[in-house]
Amino acid sequence: MIQTKQLIKRVGDKVILRGVNLSIKEGQTVAILGPNGAGKSTILKVIATLIKPSSGEVLINNKEIKKHALEVKSLIGYLPHASLLYDHFTPLENLILFGKLYGVKDVEKRAKELIEKVGLSFFLHEPVKSFSRGMIQRVAIARAIVHEPRIILLDEPHTGLDQQAIVILNKVILEMKAQGTTTVMVTHDFKQAAEICDRIIIVKNGKIVDDFMLENNNLDLVFDKYALLTEGVV
């Protein structure tokens, strides 16, 4: 579903990614862990077609993103640090807008279903600018999946969320996983990674230093491997 070949990303004299080779099968739920500055978010942005690699290739569904950018983008739902919402719009107005951009049929019905799913039906017609961080993130989650993407890319999705919002987010991810959606999540939250992901990738200094399957939500294994591979790195 997702494949990268020798991804290298340079910014000036700094090398951020150093030959990243990655293959993710359809339906997998993958967490990318690593210290600050390791290149985690850069990998996500390259896959999302938001930035171009200095060299290397990315294939989505066996198609190079360079040649099939529009088609690839329609398969992806992306949740960055910023919500990408229009804060003077209501949740309903935001989702209808983004749904129309993706050509979603019965877009208002779809928008209302998602708003209910993320627990914000009572605030359907309230402007987003009046929302808390957790409420905004819930709407942003709905925005990222309004077009029923086959791939979800999440950059630190649990940051700043209260427990209720975390439960909702994890439920949405697991429901989409059950439908065959592929999820790639950059996170520092090992507990959430272990709870919802079946594969862990650890990145250090722009390289993948470990890549393993996770069984039985084994949080201790994640901590142990991370500590061993990132010792001495802040």
Automatic annotation (TrEMBL):
UniProt cross-references to Pfam families, sorted A to Z: ABC_tran (PF00005)
Recorded family membership: Belongs to the ABC transporter superfamily.
GO MF annotation terms: ATP binding; ATP hydrolysis activity; transmembrane transporter activity
InterPro entries, A to Z: AAA+_ATPase, ABC_transporter-like_ATP-bd, ABC_transporter_ATP-binding, ABC_transptr_haem_export_CcmA, P-loop_NTPase
Single GO BP term: cytochrome complex assembly
PROSITE patterns: ABC_TRANSPORTER_2 (PS50893)
Keywords for this protein: ATP-binding, Cytochrome c-type biogenesis, Nucleotide-binding, Transport
Protein source organism: Pseudoneobacillus rhizosphaerae
Domain ABC transporter intervals: 2-230
Name of the featured protein: ABC transporter ATP-binding protein NatA
The keyword Phosphoprotein is annotated on this UniProt entry: no
Superkingdom as given in the UniProt entry: Bacteria
Keyword Nucleotide-binding: yes
